[in-house]
Amino acid sequence: VDAVFNDPSFCSRRYTLSIYACPQAIGNHMHEFLNGYAFALVTNRTLLWKFCDRKPCRVDFESDCAEVLERFPWIPSYDRFTREWEARNCSESAEILNLISPGERHRADEIFMCCGIDGLHKHAVINVGTHEMQEMRGVTHPNALLQNSTKALVSTLFSYGSTFLYGIMFRTAFRFQPHIVKANDDVMRQANLLHLVHATMKQQPHHHISHDHHNGKHTGHAVVIGVHLRHSGNSADTEHVWDVHAIGCVQQALQQLNHSREGNSHRPCYILLASDRNQSLNYWRESSDVYCTVITSDHAKSHPEWTEHGPFTGETAMKDLE
Questions:
Q1: Which helix or strand (DSSP H or E) is residue 143 part of?
Q2: CA 290 to CA 277: how far, in whole Å?
Q3: pLDDT for 159-187, tens place per residue?
């Protein structure tokens, strides 16, 4: 942070404003932040943070978010930036360019692809807008309108896929508070899984399925699959459809790993299941189609259901995410 504010070229730097909120609405508003982070990396801008104060974010407060998630101090705050900008009488305007309006957010990946985002040098501060997914992956399109040097950078950043990059960005911007980590470690330890899963994760790359080159068999100590069940409605029938679909996806993944119910007693299988719905958690634990051991975080604490969310939001959702 000090390097930014002590920089003699502070007024000529280019900046990206990234906005976030948690814990209740982290799904939408953390993606907003991470898309801004990716934009800053691709366009060589300095990242600024701000806690969301728009109406949809008012279920969250910065103090509540800080109780479960620590933001690393290397990211300068937008509030301090504006004070410094005024104090130094920077000649340029620091008015924010909102790159994508809320009405266009569903085609944001097309806009990132088509519109030469690495050429917007005249704007000191850019906010990429409100996004809910990994929209910045639009820059990976072969026909993206970018300079050759930017395309080379994009190729490196997204070389393991957008999900891997977004995960790295999250882990370099935030970390879970110790009590969240400890709660999950306690669950894993009680299931005698903590050391096993850590060893598997170290050996098994997160970005793709690993195979032995000699016999085509997966070489990990265990198969560990993370599943996030997100439902966009409160209909029990709709929830069940998504549960069945997700189980089918897990079965396909196990087939790719040459793992079967009958032939892999020496290679155990575990599913780390995240969901905000009791019905889903119980269905996965009891389904005969799921032969892996299902592990969940501590869901003892519940909240009133709101809009499309089930009772396990807030702190419980943060445990699921960790």
A1: none
A2: 18
A3: 999 999 999 999 999 999 999 999 999 99
